[in-house]
Amino acid sequence: MQAADPDEEASWVWNEIKAEARRDAESEPALASYLYSTILSHSTLDRSLAFHLGNKLCSSTLLSTLLYDLFLNTFSVDPDLRSAAVADLRAARSRDPACVSFSHCLLNYKGFLACQAHRVAHKLWTQSRKPLALALQSRISDVFAVDIHPGAKLGKGILFDHATGVVVGETAVIGNNVSILHHVTLGGTGKAGGDRHPKIGDGVLIGAGATILGNVSIGTGAKIGAGSVVLINVPPRATAVGNPARLVEEKEGSKVEECPGTSMDHTSFISDWSDYTI
Fold first, then answer.
1. Is 266 within 8 Å of 276 (Cβ atoms)?
2. Conformation bin of residue 122: beta by default, left when phi > 0, alpha when psi is -120 to 50
């Protein structure tokens, strides 16, 4: 199957967002002005997102106009940021049953907003504009309660579900189509520098309150159970649970999910492939 053109996909999602905003403005007049200023008055997703992030993250000394220009200029020169935002919107819409529309995600999902703001901070970090990147990280943490170091690398199709309390360290890497729930930490193990944070493969699902420490690898399609403390590598399509986490052995002929990060399936079929009980 031929991959969708990124510009066409972004245009389709943006048209959906505008249609949703018009319907919401008609059904809830109290939101009409808000929806016009954040969505309907803008010509592109880039402009709407830059405006919304600027207003969310501004302070008395970090003006919304400055942030708007920063976000819009960064989005404009890097098409990958737009395609990543579209992939993240689709991730929230398809994986979270509480996400009723693309516009709801764009306006209200702090995990989505924190992720897009981080992408700009990471771009600044790679351009050696580290003071501004760190200032942006601080505002993201203050406003959204999501603390992602600007050095961390994120793929596309990321879902920070609920997002409160998520911490991602400087040398962490998160692959594509990963879903991470609230109060997850991807941290180091001490004060040593260097490459010291987890590497999360594509399609991984990390449950609420999980802690993954050190330069360990979480393989493609793996699951990390809620509340687990992971200090070791986890193989592809394996499941790790507990404190300290241990690998759950599969039964012979058991069903293995290819991409738990998109299915969001934390517990189904567990009796089919494991004797593990809580």
1. no
2. alpha
Six-digit token string for 30: 């109290």
- Signed CA dihedral, 131, 132, 135, 137: sign only: negative
- Are 171 and 197 contacting, i.e. CB atoms less than 8 angstroms apart? yes
For residues 205 and 238, the answer to whether their CB atoms sit within 8 Å is no
Question: What does the pLDDT look like over 50-81, one tens digit per residue?
Answer: 999 999 999 999 999 999 999 999 999 999 99
> Is the alpha carbon torsion for 130, 157, 260, 237 positive or negative?
negative
Structure tokens at 209: 């309150």
**pTM of the predicted model as reported, rounded to 2 decimal places:** 0.93
The DSSP string of the chain is -PPPPHHHHHHHHHHHHHHHHHHHHHH-GGGHHHHIIIIIT-SSHHHHHHHHHHHHH--SSS-HHHHHHHHHHHHHH-HHHHHHHHHHHHHHHHH-TT---HHHHHHH-HHHHHHHHHHHHHHHHHTT-HHHHHHHHHHHHHHHS-EE-TT-EE-SS-EEES-TT-EE-TT-EE-SS-EEETT-EEE-SSS--SS-S-EE-TT-EE-TT-EEESS-EE-TT-EE-TT-EE-S-B-TT-EEETTTTEEPPPPTT----S-HHHH--SSTTHHHH-----
- Contact (CB, 8 A) for 164 and 181: no
Contact yes or no for 127/151 (Cβ under 8 A): no
Q: Which residues, at least 6 apart from 249, have a Cβ–Cβ distance to it below 8 Å? A: 274, 275
Q: What percentage of the chain reaches a pLDDT higher than 70?
A: 92
Strands 223-224 and 229-230: unpaired
Cβ atoms within 10 A of the Cβ of 50, count? 24
